[in-house]
Specification:
This protein has 10 helices and 8 strands. The protein has a single domain, classed as Vaccinia Virus protein VP39 (Rossmann fold), CATH 3.40.50. It is α/β, with parallel strands linked by helices and 230 residues long. The termini are far apart. Strands 1-4-3-2-5-6-8-7 form an 8-stranded mixed sheet, sandwiched between helices.
């Protein structure tokens, strides 16, 4: 994508009422919707699903279409990619969709205690080098952050093409005593018929063309491990 297109998308992003992007200082000093997304922005009390690393927003928008009685928020740092999801949500007049442009490390400043009822992590960077393990979005460091805003019954979904990240996350689940709900090393070679397979991201479609296996995990956090670390 050329710089001109990026600039045009950044400019149009500013016109969308469901995009939230702030400077670091503004967020850490107190984000006004933290803990209040449902009553003040969505104007309802429906469950809230968060997608981390939402990219073009295919999952956020796709689930919003399928589940009008849920709220959905996509989080990513790439504003030019996020533009597509924002644009589609506006064109389709979807009222249960919002996007937050920020680093995932700052998510805890946007969402209050037990505010999020479900979490999707779709095709994150697997951070292959061992020295970058802490940057994996299913590392203990990140799971502890998610525990600050997840409902205790919230399900975390991971969808990835990376065997390394899949195996790593399974180990983290086991080591942390988290509750494993589903594990599948080849969802399209199985009989899964749900949003796990019905909704595909742009890059997922590309990988499928090359015959890449898509892997999936679902689990719930063990609250005791985070209480011990407080």
């Amino acid at each position: 994508m050329g710089n001109k297109n990026k600039l045009q998308r950044f400019a149009e992003n500013l016109t969308f009422s469901n995009l939230f992007q702030y400077r670091y200082e503004e967020v850490v000093n107190g984000f006004s919707l933290k803990g209040k997304w449902k009553p003040e922005f969505f104007k309802n009390n429906y469950p809230l699903t968060l997608e981390l690393g939402c990219g073009k927003g295919e999952y956020t928008v796709g689930m919003a279409r399928n589940y009008p009685e849920r709220n959905f928020i996509g989080v990513d740092i790439k504003g030019a990619r996020m533009w597509r999801g924002l644009k589609t949500a506006q064109e389709e007049k979807l009222k249960n969709v919002a996007f937050v442009r920020t680093r995932i490390e700052l998510s805890e400043y946007y969402f209050g205690e037990q505010e999020v009822d479900e979490l999707w992590i779709t095709f994150p960077d697997p951070q292959i080098k061992a020295v970058r393990e802490r940057k994996r979005l299913t590392s203990p460091r990140f799971l502890q952050r998610y525990a600050l805003f997840l409902n205790p019954d919230a399900i975390i979904h991971l969808k990835t093409d990376a065997l390394l990240l899949y195996d790593y996350t399974r180990e983290i689940i086991e080591q942390g005593g988290h509750l494993l709900l589903a594990a599948n090393e080849d969802i399209y070679g199985s009989e899964i018929d749900s949003e796990v397979t019905r909704i595909q991201t742009f890059y997922e479609k590309k990988w499928l063309e090359y015959g890449t296996k898509i892997r999936y995990l679902a689990f719930k956090l063990n609250p005791e491990i985070f209480q011990k670390n407080k």
